[in-house]
Amino acid sequence: MAITEQDVQASEDAPSVNYLNNGYGLKSWLLTRDHKRIAVLYIISISIFFALGGLFASLVRFELMTPEGDLMSSDTYNKVFSMHGIIMVFFFLVPSIPATIGNFLVPIMVGAKDLAFPRVNLLSWYVYVVAGILGTIAVVGGGVDTGWTFYTPYSSTYSNSNVILAAMAAFMAGFSSILTGLNFVVTIHTMRAPGMTWFRLPLFVWSHYATSLIMLLGTPVIAITLVLLMLERGFGFGFFDPNLGGDPVLFQHLFWFYSHPAVYIMILPSMGVMSEMVAAVARKRVFGYEFVAFSSVAIAILGFLVWGHHMFVSSQSTYAGMVFSIITFLVAVPSAIKVFNWTATLYKGSIIYDTQMFYVYGYLGLFLVGGLTGLFLSSMGLDIHLHDTYFVVAHFHYIMVGGQVMGYMGGMHFWWPKITGKMYPDIWGRVSALLVFLGFNLTFFPQFILGYMGMPRRYHVYPDEFQVLNVASSLGASILALGYVIPGAYLTWSIFKGPKAPDNPWGAKGLEWETTSPPPTFNFEETPLVTEEAYQYGPIEEH
Amino acid sequence: MADDHHGPTVRIYLAVFASLMFLTALTVWVAFQDLGMFNDVVALGIACTKATIVILFFMHVKYASRLTWLLAGAGILFLLILFAFAMADYVSRGWLGMPASHYLQ
Fold this sequence. Notes:
The structure holds 2 protein chains of 2 kinds.
Chain A: H1 5-12, H2 26-30, H3 35-63, H4 74-110, H5 118-140, H6 154-158, H7 163-190, H8 203-235, H9 248-282, H10 289-302, H11 318-346, H12 355-378, H13 380-386, H14 390-420, H15 426-453, H16 467-497
Helix pairs in contact in A: 3-4, 3-5, 3-16, 4-7, 4-8, 4-9, 4-14, 5-7, 7-8, 8-9, 8-10, 9-11, 9-12, 9-14, 10-11, 11-12, 12-14, 12-15, 14-15, 15-16
Chain B: H1 10-31, H2 38-58, H3 66-92
Helix pairs in contact in B: 1-2
């Protein structure tokens, strides 16, 4: 949407003190209790880890260009893909949207001055940073080679890498997300502005509420599981050792009890971003608001009942497998409700083809493929063939990168003017969104075929007939990387050289668009009074 | 709740501390008794009692709002889900008479 002179004028008339220029010293940032500044600190931190995780992904794709293991040894390859997974899951995907965009927006969207516990919010960032430093020490000190799943008995008994340090890093990162989740639950329950009833909340807030419940209910389990692993490895406790009465599969139960819902910790906030962007680009109220809201809660609850689908080929009982399989099929229902409702929202909408729209389309396509291939894997018989193949790798990247990262990137573009007060060049936004979509499909679609043909994950030596598809995948990864580097460049440029953003550059609805860009320290000059439902869009205005 | 803003008194804290110490001593003593099939039941029973006391008094849930009760209850419910589904696996592993199932009996 074009920016009018009136918009710019209105923005220039806005109060000059905002959260960014309210203090410049290092101390004003490192000791801040402002949720917006903490969100910015998180954006910088997770960007570093995204780059580091991406570097490891690049090494994996370089190695897989040829069938021989010619770039690195098997041991090194094990460490490289493990560090890629650990960094991306625990230090990027889980905190990415809640700790950044969520941290920035949840208080503003509910009409509050800050989160309920500002000091706890800052503490969560420091815990995250300490966890990140521990993880980095684990990498620099020789790495870890267990895969991000830390499966026993390899991790507890046989691995000669920095398992305890990496597990401690993941343990601490978990506490950081518990603190964030706690803050969101309390804020959403107790700090909503007058008139902001539950069914007037933006769907972004609903999805963050559901995410926070998973963080609070699930993360303690992974934390204690990692403690058990450390005790077993360090002191030979025997929880997971059959020789001492333990069971290695018990680790998988405990690990996936959190780590499957963790997928929803990653994807639900992204779904919230989609709901906001779909409504804004179609200029319509989200179709079936209540259904989309409750589908978030349904995903959060059902997501806890499906973990056994990761264990069909372990010694898990066939009967338990059947139950997990059926419930896994059920969890597709609320996910499908969202996709159908977003599509129905676009129907007859006044669609604007800007950067956000590209990300919306990209997300819908990629999440659809990721979700549907999940149904393949939840079928017990088919999973025996596909388990631990590249089909699984492709599936979860379609969800985690195609879904989650598309949502993160789309959300960053959508709210960038609000966060920084600056506009970015829309044409570059569209170009990079297109590159991400094309590069992503070229990277991961061949992996579905590779997996179906039987190429196992976590191997760097493979038969010659798999090379063409692996080279295609590596080529796609280069394009995908370009799709991430370009936004990094023009978004950074926009901070220094970009035109000033008006308060509401997209003509979007929501309390965040009623305050200034960037918002003042306490978000609003006066506590807002909410008098209407979310997404009350009218026809598009001529500019 | 009427007593939303009242926390436990020092006297209650001391009583809780004493009971936790007593239950810890009891755990150690019970560990040296052979109660047959009740060994685990008694040990877990004492542990759960201690956890309940900590949650109610040290974590102030007894004096908190209904919403806090709801969230604490949700935590326990999801813990039970973890136990129930994981045990459903262990209990039913031998039902189909798989070749290796005798190792799990």
